[in-house]
Specification:
globular, alpha+beta, 13 strands, four-stranded antiparallel β-sheet
Length: 199
């Protein structure tokens, strides 16, 4: 699989259906605001070519790229991903929980309780491969409340310039205003629950 510099992965078997729907939604969000690719590039810090290829589903966007776009569009990643899925039911069966993978960083994200109209919180299960390191340069929504509960493995979370080492069973609670970093320090993969509450 070939990777684009600041975009994502591309393969030879045609676009992934989720990537295709995501590309359409990203193009719609930009069009709703009347922005050109150049204007979006300036606002997000992502190159025009990468944005164009993501909108055409020529690349699979990384978590970092989606986080930047979510910040520009004022959405959480779960909200954006839920917009390209069917309307979530009140009861979300395990088999129906959407899973998204960023192969570049070794991050797998399961939307356990996706965003729903009238609800402010959501639950995400995250998995980071041992040694994986993922950084977000800003929260998608300033002041976003997060509760990070480690189920397995060991996780290092950096936020507000402070590092926190979390072992299985530990929970970190915070509001996110700036950059954050998640690192699986091994020896095994880190699995955690992320509870997100909109401010």
């Amino acid at each position: 699989m070939r990777r684009d510099g600041d975009g994502g992965a591309e393969g030879g078997g045609g676009p992934d259906p989720v990537d295709s729907r995501l590309g359409v939604r990203l193009a719609e969000l930009r069009a709703e605001r009347g922005w050109s690719l150049g204007e979006l590039a300036e606002r997000s810090g992502v190159s025009r070519s990468t944005l164009s290829r993501a909108e055409r589903a020529e690349i699979s966007p990384t978590a970092s790229l989606l986080n930047r776009l979510c910040g520009v569009y004022g959405r959480t990643m779960s909200q954006l991903l839920s917009e390209v899925e069917e309307e979530p039911a009140l009861l979300v069966r395990a088999a129906d929980q959407a899973v998204w993978e960023d192969k570049a960083s070794g991050f797998v994200r399961r939307s356990v309780s996706p965003p729903h109209a009238g609800l402010r919180g959501e639950l995400v299960e995250g998995r980071l491969a041992s040694g994986a390191d993922i950084a977000y340069d800003r929260p998608p929504v300033p002041g976003l409340e997060q509760h990070i509960w480690v189920l397995d493995g060991r996780l290092e979370v950096t936020a507000q310039d402070a590092g926190h080492r979390l072992d299985a069973g530990d929970c970190l609670r915070l509001r996110v205003w700036g950059p954050t970093r998640f690192r699986s320090t091994g020896p095994g993969d880190a699995r955690y629950v992320l509870a997100v509450v909109l401010p």
